[in-house]
C-alpha cells in the first residue's frame, strides 16, 4: 500500500479503494460544505420564525393551562389547571362562537367556490380582455379588510346605505340590517363573499388555464355534452386547485376578525362573535381574562391544525389515488 | 361500416389563409388510407375537418351516404386517436376506454365486457386499473387506441399516433395498428409525416403538399410511378437522386453532366412522350437502390467520386458526386438531409463491394427504372 | 375550451358571456364606486341620505383626515412597518429559500412542512404571548413590535415562493459559477438572484400587501393613536351607527387603497403566479 504524504481527507465511510486511499471525492467534501452552508443560509430565517412564532405558540398553550392573574405591573402564572378550558366550555358564547365560525366558514367557502368557479369559467373563454378582468378582480383582494368593512357599513347604514334602500324595495320598513341576528350574519357573509370571491376566482382561473386542452377535443369526439364535460372532466382535473383554494379559504375564515370587529363589533349581542373576536375580547376587554383567553386561542389553533391534518389526509389519499 | 368521401373540401381561416385547397378523396369501407406530407401541408387540418373539430369552409364531406358537414363529432360516429393521446389523466385505463360508452348510457356490465375485450386485444389487461400517469408512452398510445376501437365507430381517424414513440417501439406499433385495423375492418384515415409509415401501413396513400393532394395511389404505384417531382422525392428513403439532364435527338441518349447514358428502346416504349423533349432540359430521377455497383456485365453505367460510405450491415450507402446539377423538390428534403448530402447522389450497393471515399466508383444504371420529369411543371413524363 | 366550430352556438355563448362579465364587473365596481365617490361628499350631509353622486363636491374629508386626524402619520407608520418587514423577509427568505431549494441539506422536507403549518396558524393564537413578551421588554407601541411578527409570519410563504423560483433556475448556472471560481454566496447574489427577480417581486408584493392590510396585531400591540397603522386608524374608532364619520373614513380609505391597488395592478402577473405556485407545489 502506498503511503500518502498528505493527510487523508475525511472518509465517506466506504472501504478503501484499490489505491488504498479512502473512497471519497472532492465532490463529497464539497457537498458537505454546501450542506453546512445551507444550514447557515436558512438559520437566520428559521431562528427568527421559531422565536416569534413557535415560542409564542408554545407559551400560549402553557398559559392556557395555568392560573393567570394580572396586575398593573405584570402578570402572574401559577399551577396547572384545566379551569380555563372548563370555563370556556361552559361559556355560552364560546360554544356559539365555535358553531358560528364553523358554519360561517362552510357557507362562505361554498358560495365563493360556486361563484368563483362561474367567474373563472366565463373568464377562461375570453381571449382578449382576460388580463383586464383579472386585474379588476384583484382589486377587492388587495383592499384592506377594514376598509371594505367600513364600505359595507356604509352600504348597510339604515338611513343612507344603498343596501338598505335595496332591501326596502323588497318590502322591509326601515331596515336595520346590522341590528338583527340573522340579517347581520348574512350581511357579514355578503361582505366577505364580495371581498374574497375574486381571490377564489383567480386561483381557479389559473388552474383552468393550465389544464391540457387536447383532452377536451377527445371528450368532444367521445360525445360529451357541455355539462358532462364540466362535471366529468374539468372538475376532476381541477380537483387539486380546488383543494388548494378550499384550504386557503378555510384557514382564512377561521381567523375571522377584521370584518366583524369593524362591521358589527361582534353583535348584535354575540350573534357575529367569531372565535377570534371572542379571544380578543377575552384578552383585552373582559377584565383581561387571560387564562380563558389563551384557552380560546389555543383551542382555535387546535381546531385549525386538526382541520389541516384531516384535509391533508384526505388530500394525500386523493393524490395517492391520482398518481398511484 | 362506412366510407369517407371528400368533394372539393376547402379550409380557409378567418385571417384569409387557405390551408386546404379544394381536395377530393375517397376512403373505401375497411380501407386504410394514409394521408402523408411534410409539416404544414394541411393533412392534420383535413383530418380535423373529417372529425368535426374544424369547420369546413367549402365542399362536401360524406360519411357513408350522409352529408355530415354540419354535424358535430358525436353525430358523425367517428373515433379518433390523438397525437398526444389526450387521455383523461384522472381516470383509470378502464375508465378512459369506457368513457364514451358511459356517456351513451350503456349498461355497466356491457361496458365492462367491451372494455376488457378491447384491453385484451391491445394487451392492456393487467394495467386496466392504473392511471395514465403510471404508464409508459407505448402503453398510453395503446390506451388511446383502445378508447377508439371500443366505440365500434364507422370511421377511424388517427393523427400521427406513433410520432411520440421511440424508433424501435414505432416499428413494433406500426404492425400492431395495421393488425388491429385489419381485424376491425373499419375505414381509416391515418395522418403522418413519415413516409415509411405511409408505405408500410396504407392500402392506399395520399401525398399532400401545401394544401393540395399530389397523388393518391397504392404504395407500390407511388414508388414506381410518381406523378411529379415532389412525390418522387418524398417517397423512398434515401430519397431519389434527381439531376438536370438533356436528351439527345430521339431521346436515345441521356446527357448527365459530362457522362452519357444510352437509353434502350424499352425506355422510349414505356415513355412515349419522352421523344418530344429531345434536345431539351429534363429532370431525371434514379433511386439509390437502382444504382448497384457496376460489375462489368455491360449496360449503362455512370461514374462518380465517392465522398462518404455508410455501412449499414445489409448494404453500403455510397455518397458520390458527379458533375450534373442536382435538383431539389421544395419542401421535401429536410435541412439535415440537405446539409449531409451536400448535392451528392446516393447509391445503395452490395456490402461486399470495396468502395472507399476518395475513389472513383462505377455504378450500373437501371435504365428501365429511371424517372423523367418536365422541369417546368414538375410532372412526370410518360405519355 | 372555445373551438372554431358551431358558429351559431358561439354567438349564443357570446351573449351569455357578455352578460356574466358585465355582472361581475358591476359587482366588483359598485362598492368601490361608492367608496371613491363618497369620499368627496359633504361630511355633514353624507349621513343623511343616500346620494349616488355627491350633492356638493368637496375635499373637506381629505383635508380633515390629513390635518386634524394626522392620517399622514398613519400612512408613515404603515409604510415604515411594511417596507422594513418586506426588506427583512426578502433578505432572510431568499437565503433560506435558496438553501431549501438548492443546497443539499438533510431534513429539508420536515422543515418545509413545518413552515407550511406555521403559515396557516391563526394569528389569534399568538397574540397573547407576544403581547406579554412585548410588554415585558417594553416594546409595546413601537415599530419593532409589528415588524418582527410581520416578518416572522410572512417568511414561510415567501420562502415557498422563492424556493419555487430558485428551483426553476437551471443547475448549470451554479456550476458555471463554480467553474468560474465564485464562492456560493457570490453565486447566489450575483448569478442566481438576478434570475429570480420575478420571484422576488412576487414575494415582495405579497409581503407588502399582507403588512399593509394587517389589523389584529396592529390593533393589539400598537394601540397608541400616534402609532396606529392605517387599518387600525380606519377601523378602530368604533362609533355608534349614528355618528360614524363616513366622509373621512372614505377619504382615508382612498388614500390607503390607491397605492396598493396600483401596485397590484402593475404586478398582477406576479401576484397571480404567486397565488398559483402554491397550486403547483401543493
Walk me through what this model shows.
The complex is a heterotrimer of chains A (324), B (383) and C (282). Chain A is mainly α. Chain A has helices at residues 26-64, 83-89, 92-125, 130-142, 145-156, 162-169, 181-209, 214-222, 226-254, 258-263, 275-284, 290-323, and strands at 67-70, 75-78. Chain A has 2 domains: 28-53; 96-323, MetI-like fold, CATH 1.10.3720.10. The longest helix of chain A is centred in the N-terminal third of the chain and has 39 residues, at 26-64. Chain A is flat. By secondary structure, chain B is α+β, with helices and mostly antiparallel strands. In chain B, the strands form 4 sheets. In chain B, strands 6-7-8-3-9-10 form a 6-stranded mixed beta sheet, with helices on both faces. The longest helix of chain B has 18 residues, at 167-184. Chain B is elongated. With 282 residues, chain C is mainly alpha-helical. Chain C has one domain (73-281): MetI-like fold (Orthogonal Bundle), CATH 1.10.3720. Chain C is 74% helix and 0% strand. The longest helix of chain C is centred in the N-terminal third of the chain and has 32 residues, at 7-38. Chains in contact: A-B, A-C, B-C. At the A-C interface, α1, α3, α4, α5 and α7 of A face α1, α3, α4, α5 and α6 of C.
What's the topology here?
The complex is a heterotrimer of chains A (324), B (383) and C (282).
Chain A: H1 26-64, E1 67-70, E2 75-78, H2 83-89, H3 92-125, H4 130-142, H5 145-156, H6 162-169, H7 181-209, H8 214-222, H9 226-254, H10 258-263, H11 275-284, H12 290-323
Antiparallel strand pairs in A: 1-2
Chain B: E1 4-12, E2 18-27, E3 32-36, H1 43-51, E4 58-63, E5 66-67, H2 73-76, E6 78-81, H3 93-103, H4 108-122, H5 137-149, E7 155-159, H6 167-184, E8 187-192, H7 195-201, E9 204-209, E10 212-217, H8 219-224, H9 229-234, E11 241-247, E12 253-256, E13 259-262, H10 265-270, E14 281-286, E15 301-311, E16 316-321, H11 335-341, E17 345-349, E18 360-364, E19 371-373
Parallel strand pairs in B: 3-8, 3-9, 6-7, 7-8
Antiparallel strand pairs in B: 1-2, 1-4, 4-5, 9-10, 11-12, 11-14, 12-13, 14-19, 15-16, 15-18, 16-17
Chain C: H1 7-38, H2 60-68, H3 71-102, H4 108-119, H5 124-137, H6 144-167, H7 172-180, H8 184-195, H9 197-213, H10 216-221, H11 230-236, H12 246-266, H13 268-281
